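Purpose: get a first structural picture of the assembly so the mutagenesis plan has something to point at.
Setup: two entries, given in the order below. No constraints added.
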Amino acid sequence: MYKAPVEEIAFTLKHVAGLGSALDNGRLGNLTDDLVDAILSEAGRFATEEVAPLAEIGDRQGARFVDGAVKMPDGWPALYKAWAEGGWNSLTAAPDFGGQGLPHMLHVAALEMWNSGSMAFAIGPTLTIGAIEALTTHGSEHLKTTYLPRMVSGEWMGSMNLTEPHAGSDLGVMKTRAERRDDGTYRLFGQKIFITYGEHDFTDNIVHLVLARLPDAPAGTRGISLFLVPKFLVNADGSLGPRNDAHCHSIEHKLGIHGSPTCTMIYGDGRFGDEPGAIGWLVGEENRGLACMFTMMNNARLAVGMQGVAIAEAATQKAIGYAKERTQGKAPGWQGSGMSPIIEHPDVVRMLLTMKVLTQGARAITYACAHAVDMAHGEDARHWADRASLLTPIAKSFATDAGVDVASLGVQVHGGMGFIEETGAARLYRDARIAPIYEGTNGIQAIDLVTRKLPLSDGGHVRGFIAELRDIAAKARAANAPELGETGDRLEAGVADLEAATEWLLSTLADGKQAEALAGATPYQRLFGLVLTGAYLAKGALADGGDGRSGERAALCRFAAENIIGETAALRDRVTSGAASLAAARAVLG
Amino acid sequence: MYKAPVEEIAFTLKHVAGLGSALDNGRLGNLTDDLVDAILSEAGRFATEEVAPLAEIGDRQGARFVDGAVKMPDGWPALYKAWAEGGWNSLTAAPDFGGQGLPHMLHVAALEMWNSGSMAFAIGPTLTIGAIEALTTHGSEHLKTTYLPRMVSGEWMGSMNLTEPHAGSDLGVMKTRAERRDDGTYRLFGQKIFITYGEHDFTDNIVHLVLARLPDAPAGTRGISLFLVPKFLVNADGSLGPRNDAHCHSIEHKLGIHGSPTCTMIYGDGRFGDEPGAIGWLVGEENRGLACMFTMMNNARLAVGMQGVAIAEAATQKAIGYAKERTQGKAPGWQGSGMSPIIEHPDVVRMLLTMKVLTQGARAITYACAHAVDMAHGEDARHWADRASLLTPIAKSFATDAGVDVASLGVQVHGGMGFIEETGAARLYRDARIAPIYEGTNGIQAIDLVTRKLPLSDGGHVRGFIAELRDIAAKARAANAPELGETGDRLEAGVADLEAATEWLLSTLADGKQAEALAGATPYQRLFGLVLTGAYLAKGALADGGDGRSGERAALCRFAAENIIGETAALRDRVTSGAASLAAARAVLG
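Result (C-alpha cells, whole complex):
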C-alpha cells in the first residue's frame, strides 16, 4: 500500500526546486519551514490513510451511469467530503473567497500525493481548482461572489468543457453556440465530450465552465467565448433554483481511472427548463474565451504532470515492496539459505533504480516548474514567467511518459502477479496511460516547447537555463567525489547535446523551416527532460538535506548519469538530422 | 479492423529470414513457393475474417467461471472448431499422427496472424501445439497412439502445468508430488497456477502435461518429472472414461487476454474418482521432466515472441487507419482545405514510423529464429541449432517489448479515443503486457542470452553472427544509394557497439564476474535486438522482392538507421560500465 514519501517530497521542494531559498529570501510571505512540513505531513497522511485505501474499489466499481445520473464508487462521496472539510480545496485559492493563498509548490506536492492515492479521485478536485482559478482571474464580481466561496469551500465542484467530437487539440473548429439574451445572460446549445467530473453525486451543484461560439464570432480560436453554466441555477439568496438545461448523456468505458466519470454533456436540448438553451454567464470578454483558458492551461498541464509523478511513485513503492518479499532463484553472490528475494537479482535492481530515477527526475522537474509559477508574481516576474512557460511542456510530457514507463516496469517486476488485477500494479499501468494524452497530448507539448517556448526572449531564456545546467554539471565535476562516479562528465555531455539541439532548432526556426524543426520536437523534449533529470539529481546529491541520505542521493545520481541519461547523444542526432529521413519515409505509411 | 499483411510476411520470410534460399536449396522437401503463398494467404484470410471479428467480444465477456467449469466467450467454441477443421493445428505436427510436417517458419507466420486477430484466442492452440511437440519427442508409444492423433486433429486440446505459487521462474522448488502405482501409472497431488487454457468448453477432453516431483527425487530441477494427466481418462477403445481427479479451482481476473482462461488447477484432492490422486502417465524418464520441457521451451518462447509481433502489427494498422481518418489542426505545409489528417503532422509520422520499424524488426528477428529452427535438422545442424539458441531470447524479449511499446504508441496516436475501450487500441495495450512476462520474463531471457548463449562454441557462434551483420552493413554502405541515407555508417557503428559489448561480456564471464555481466544483461539484449532490426531492415531494402516496394523499404530502413538504432552507443556503455553504479545504488532501495 502507498505511503506518502513526505521527506523525499520536502527535500526536493526545498533543496532542488527552490522552496528553501524562496523561504529564506522572504518571497513567500510569512510561510515558514515548519508550516511547510506540517502541511506536507498532513496531506501525506490524508493521501495514505484516506485516499489510497479507496482506490481499488473505485477502479473495480467505477463511476456508474444510472437513470441519467452518475453514482460514484462506494465511500467516495464521504471521502470527498472529508477532503473538502480538510481545507485541501482551498490551498492556493485567494483569501478573499476563503482560500489560504499558499504557494503553488505546496499545491503540486499535495496533488502528487492525492494522485498517488487515487488518480481517479484526485482528478476531480484538480479540475475544480482550475475552474476557481479561471473565475478568480476573469469572472465578474457577480459571478465571483455567487460561486467562488462555495467552490473554494468544496461545497460545489466545477468542470471544464472544451472538447467536442471534432475539436480536440484544435479547439478552433468547435460548434457549441451561445446566443445573447436581453438580460445579459446567454443560452448555450451543443455537445461536449470527455468532460471529466461533468456529473457526479459528490456535490449538490456543479459549475460548468463551457467554451462556445457567439453567432457573430470570428472563425477559429479568436471567436471562442467562455461561459459559466451551473447545473442548478442559483437564486438571489444563494439557494439552489431550478435545474438548468444541461445534462450528462452518458459516460465512457475507459482503460483506466474508472472512478472518474468521463461525461458527454448536452447543453440546451430542452430537457430541462421552459425553453431550450442552457443559461450561461460570460466569463471575461466575448471572443476572449481561449485567453481565459490559457490562464489556467499551464497549471492544468502541470497538474497532469503531477499525475505522472504520482503514478510513478506509487508503482515504484509497490514494486520495491514486492521485490523484497518475493523470493525466486539465487542471485549471484547470494549467501542466504534458500531462494533470494528478487531484489537481489541485478536485473531487478536495474528496473527498480530506473523507476526511482524517472520518478525523482519527474518530481524535480514538476516542482521546479511550480517554483517558477510561484516566483512569477514578484521581482524578476518576466524571468520566472518564462521559466514556467519553458518548463511546463517538459514537466507535463516527461512526467507523464515516466508514469507510463515506470508503471509498465512495475508490472514487469511483479512477474505473472503483475498481470492479475488484484495485485494493483495493472491499475497503475492502466490509469497512467491517459496522462500523456489529455490536457494537450505530449506531441502537442513538444510543438509548444519548440515553436513557442524556445523563442522566448529570442532564445535568451533557454540559453540562460542551459548555462545554469552547465553550472550544475561543473559543480558535480568539481566535487570530485568518488560516489558520484562519472556524473560530471556524463552530465556535461548531456548539456552539450541539449545545447547543440537547441541551437539547431532555433536556427532552423529562424530560417522558417517549421516542418524540419517539428520533426524533431518529441526527441528534443525527451532530451531536455533527461538532462534536467540528471542535473536535478546532481543538485540534490550536492545539497545536504541534513537527513544523512547524501550517500544514497549521490549513488542514485551516479546511476542516472551512467545508465539513464546516455541517450541524449542519440536524441540530439534525431533532432539535428532526423527530419530528412522522416519526410522521406512518410510514403511508407500510404 | 486488422487485415493480415500477407505480402509483407511473405517478403520477410523469403528475402530476410532465409525461406527463399532454403526453398532454392531444397532444404524443405517438396515445399514450393506457390504452396507457401497459398498457406500464408489462407491463414491470413482465416485470421482476418474469422478470428479478428471475435476479438472484441472475447475481451468484453472474457472467459467465465461458472459452476466449476469455464464458459468461453460467445462464438469462440465454433471459431475453434473451424480453426481445427481448417487443419491449422496440424501444420508442423508429424505426418505419422496426422500432421502436415511443414516448416516452423510457416507456423510462426501463421501464429503471428492468428495472434493479431486475437491473442487471447491464439494462445490456447499454441500451447496445444507445444504439448504435441513434447509428446511426439518424449512420449511412449502408448501415449502417442492414444493422444496424439486427437490432439493433432484438434479434437482434444492440451495444457502445460509448470508454475506454482512459489515456483515461477525457479521451477526447482515446486511441490506438486507424484506417487508411483504398481500398474505403471502415477498419482499426482498438488496445485498449479497460471495455467492457460487449463479448463474450457472448446473440447471434450483436455490433456494436461504436469511437472511434479517423485518422493525419492533429488532436490532442485534435477528432481522434476513430466506427466500426462487427462481431464477424462481414456478407455482402451478410445472412448472417454471417468473424470480424472483434476479440476480447475478458479480463474484469474487479468489486465488483458480476457478470453484466455488462466486457471488454478487442483490435482488429487479427491473431488473425482475412487481415491484421491490424479492419474498420470510418465512422459520421458523419471527426474528428466525439465529436459522434456526444454525441448519445447525455446519454441514456446518464440511463440510468445510472435504475440509481440502480432500485437505490434495490429496496433500499427489501427493507428495508421485512424491517423488517416482523423483531422485536426493544420500540419506544416498542409495545402488542403480545412484541417489536415493527423497523419500529416510530423510528430504523428514519427510515431507511426517508429511503430513500423519496431514491428518489422521484431518480425524479421522472430522469423530468422524460426528459420534457424528449421535448418537445425539437416546439414550444419550444430550451426543452426546454435543460431536458434542465440536468437530465441532476443526474439522473445525484443518482440514482446516491441508489442508493449507499439501498443502504447498506438493508444497515443488515437488521442482521447485511445483511452476509450470501444476503440480497441486499449485492448492491444492490455493484452500486450503479459508477453514480456510469461514463458520466462524478459529479464530471464537476458540472463539466458548472456550466460548460456554467448558462450556457445566458446563465443565463436556469436562472433560469426556479428561478422554476418557487419557484412550487411558493408553492403548497405557499398550500395551507395541516396535513399539509404546514412544506413551504412549508422549500422556499422551499431555493429561495432554490439561487438564491443559482446567481447566485454565474454571476457567478464571468463573472469568469473557473473554479477557484473548480469548487471548489463538487459541493455545488452536490447542492443542486440536494435542492431538486428537495423541489419534485417537493410537486408530487406537491399533485396528485390519484385513487388515495386524497394523504395519504401529503403526509406523505412533509413528512418530506422537515423532515428531508432542510435541508442546502441548508450546501451553499450551501460553494459561495459554500468555495473559498478548499479551495485553502488542497490542500497537506495533499502
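Chain B touches chain A through 96 residues (CB under 8 Å).
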